[in-house]
Amino acid sequence: MSPEQIFALIAALTAEPDPNAFATLKAGGADPVYPVTIAPCARPVAPSEIDGKTVICGTVAVPFDHRAPDGAKINIAFNLYKAHSLTPAPDPVIYLHGGPGTGTVGKVAKTVGYFEHLRGRRDIIAIDERGVDASAPEMDCYATLGDQLGDVVETRFKGLEMAPLEHDFIEGCLAELAAKGIDTSLINTGQNAMDVPAVMSALGYDSYNIYGISYGTKLTMEILRQNPPGIRAAVIDGNAPPWLPLYSMFWQSHSAPIQLSLSPCERDPVCSEAYPDIVARTFALYETLAEAPVEGPNGQIDPGTLWGVIDQRVDVTGAYKAITPYIPLMVTQLEQGDTTIIDQILSGALPPTPSTSSAEAARAAALAAGLSNAEMAQVEVMLSAAAHIEIAEDTVDRAARQLEGNLDAGARDTNLAELFDDRLAAAIRAMPDQAARLAVGRDYLDLRFEEPSAARLVTLIETHMTGETAEALSGLARQLDDAEVTRVFDLIREDNEATVQDVEGALQLYLYACQEDFADGWNSSKKFSQLMAEDGAWGPLMQEAIVDMVASFETACPLFEKHPRENWTTVGSSDRPVLSMNGELDTQTAGVWGELAVQDYSEAQLVMVPESGHGTIRFSQCAKDITAAFIEDPEGGLDTSCVEDLRLPVMLPDGTMHPLPY
Questions:
Q1: Region 3-131+187-237: CATH code
Q2: H-helix or E-strand containing 254?
Q3: 3-state secondary structure of 75
Q4: Residue 554, class by beta-carbon neighbours within 10 Å (0-12 exposed, 13-18 middle, 19+ buried)?
Q5: Which burial class, exposed, middle or buried, applies to 32 when counting CB atoms under 10 A from its CB (0-12, 13-18, 19+)?
Q6: What angle do CA 662, 618, 652 make, to 5 degrees?
């Protein structure tokens, strides 16, 4: 961040709000059928965004059941990020997140970071889909969680598996939601799809583009099936078409990366001669290692070790390791009992560290280039300056977040609320008896049900604490005014969010998957095993191990009523421009599913991106450029040639690198 940018950030944070900014939304939105309520964005927002200036957040009230528009409502939370252009295009991009579950509205800076390449000319909208995080506050099962708080804390403390608790929690939570009168059958993809045009209408957009990732692609395909007006184009990235029994096909998410990334070797004469039938041999190696692990100087190499190396070239965070060039030689060596390459991979020696990755790497590269002492002195000056810049940027970021927080507190006049909450939390942590901590924690959580009141805080303190601690906290509670008491109760919700997410996160996934995808035998462990055996890529020992991927659904889904929907598993069609993006290394949604997703789409384009995982835009500038070009001109010719440059070479047995075809 330059000095000028820092000056502008300070000015933006401290300036009076612009009454004309987002005026329509502040006045209730563009469509009275779907009223908008503005709310503060989840903190931190600064330094990358300024609440009310570059981004605005809130909710849109939509029908809980779109077939009964005059009935109950559900609030869909949104973030709206302004385009950087002063003359933006009229059609924004709405991001539909994956899961289902794990929303995006609470991650203000992280969410839009994926779409900065589209934000130059277009607004970006992110929502939490119905039943998920900020779009489901009334669906929190606090009573059930309170009853099981001891088990939750014990499980988290000991690092135990959550499965038994998860089962009990789901059962209790479903009963609690039913008692509240919440119809969980309406938390489904069909209703979810109808929320999207309603939200866009409320925000004032007549035309818009969709960018769906993972479950967001499934949701996009349902929107395209319903075909509401206003859709200009759609990008589906990491495809999960509902007309595939995906939960019975997770095995393919792990076999396809092997096939897609190693098949170029089989198409190349030099590589295929050096490593004949390398795809089949790689699958066979898993079976061999299961029966006879290879002993190496750094320990045993078994199927789990091999799985970790090959499968974790990418992960869900967007991390990437360029290991593909070494896999054919690694497989060949392991077949011979040699662990040289895999040991180098496991130790971090392979792939080589780029000279630009750190100060140490840059210094080593400079030394290797034979620079003189005087030249190395200049290198050290530059590295020192780089370190100071990094420290300064971190300082600016932290100071901006602190300033934002202080300004928030000043606007609310609730510093005393934060002080009380901090001291209460410290007092609970200091209690030596675990049973006592759990008891106060349970009652603390139950305050979410109550109207904010200083008397309730005093009762909590005096019930569970004694002596000077109780006296000091009770005195502080009695000093709180109404606004500060309300803020304390808000903090109670925030303070316990991590605990809620631990046991409630899976519920959001199961609400969709169990009601829709596990109805009428569309998915099951039996079908998983059958399809995997018919495919034949994985051997029998790995098939036996991999089938456990669906076990948690087999446990949870019998607790849910099934609500199969008409045409849910029928292949969808559309004449809207659609771009199907797929990563060869995607271990969540197999790259080969992308072609099946658009098989009946008349205006679809298909792109397979080498060395990319789930959500291709997280892994390469090439993917960002392709999607940006498509959004700019969905019906024009799309230049995808940059993907060819992402194909990595292969290391031959003599240690040289050989280029491979796309």
A1: 3.40.50.12270
A2: helix 252-267
A3: strand
A4: middle
A5: exposed
A6: 35
| Chain CA centroid to CA 269, Å | 40
Tokens of 74: 């559900």
* Residue 233 main-chain phi, psi, to 5 deg: -165, 165
517: closest CA among 464, 469, 554? 554
Cα distance between residue 190 and residue 220, in whole Å? 10
Contacts of 249 (CB under 8 A, 6+ apart): 528, 531, 590
Phi, psi of 627 (to 5 degrees): -65, -35
Q: Coil, helix or strand for 67?
A: coil
DSSP annotation string for 451-463: PP-HHHHHHHHHH
Cα pseudo-dihedral 609, 613, 616, 622, rounded to 10: -50
| Ranges of each domain in the chain | 3-131+187-237, 415-495
Measured torsion, CA atoms of residues 144, 145, 150, 152, in degrees rounded to the nearest 10:
130
Longest dimension (CA), the chain: 82
pLDDT of residue 162: 42
**In contact, 94 and 208? CB cutoff 8 Å:** yes
Residue 585's contacts (CB-CB under 8 Å, 6 or more residues apart) are: 257, 260, 261, 313, 314, 324, 591, 611, 612, 613
Residue 438 has which token pair?
Answer: 């759990």
What one-character DSSP code corresponds to residue 61?
A: E
Phi first, then psi, for residue 574 (nearest 5°) are -160, 150
> Rounded to whole angstroms, how far apart are CA atoms 358 and 424?
43
Nearest to 163, CA basis, from 573, 503, 659: 503
Map tokens 């209790």 to a residue: 172
pTM, to two decimals: 0.86
Q: How many CB atoms lie within 10 A of CB 490?
A: 15
- How far apart are the C-alpha atoms of 520 and 464, rounded to whole Å? 51
Q: Count Cβ atoms below 10 Å from residue 385 Cβ, excluding itself.
A: 10
Q: How far apart are CA 181 and CA 338, in angstroms?
A: 63
What are 634-654's pLDDT values in tens digits? 999 999 999 999 999 999 999
Residue 289 in contact with residue 261, Cβ under 8 Å?
no
Q: What are the φ and ψ backbone dihedral angles of 183, each rounded to 5 degrees?
A: -85, 95
Give the burial class of 433: count Cβ atoms within 10 A of its Cβ; 0-12 exposed, 13-18 middle, 19 or more buried.
Answer: exposed
Nearest-Å Rg of the Cα atoms of the chain is 27
**Cα–Cα–Cα angle for 390, 395, 399, nearest 5°?**
155
Q: Specify burial of residue 217 (Cβ count, 10 A radius: 0-12, 13-18, 19+).
A: buried
Q: Which residues contact 460 (CB under 8 A, 6 or more apart)?
A: 440, 443, 444, 447
For 374-388, what is each residue's pLDDT tens digit?
Answer: 999 999 999 999 999
417 pLDDT band, cuts 50/70/90, is: confident
Secondary structure (3-state) at 126: strand
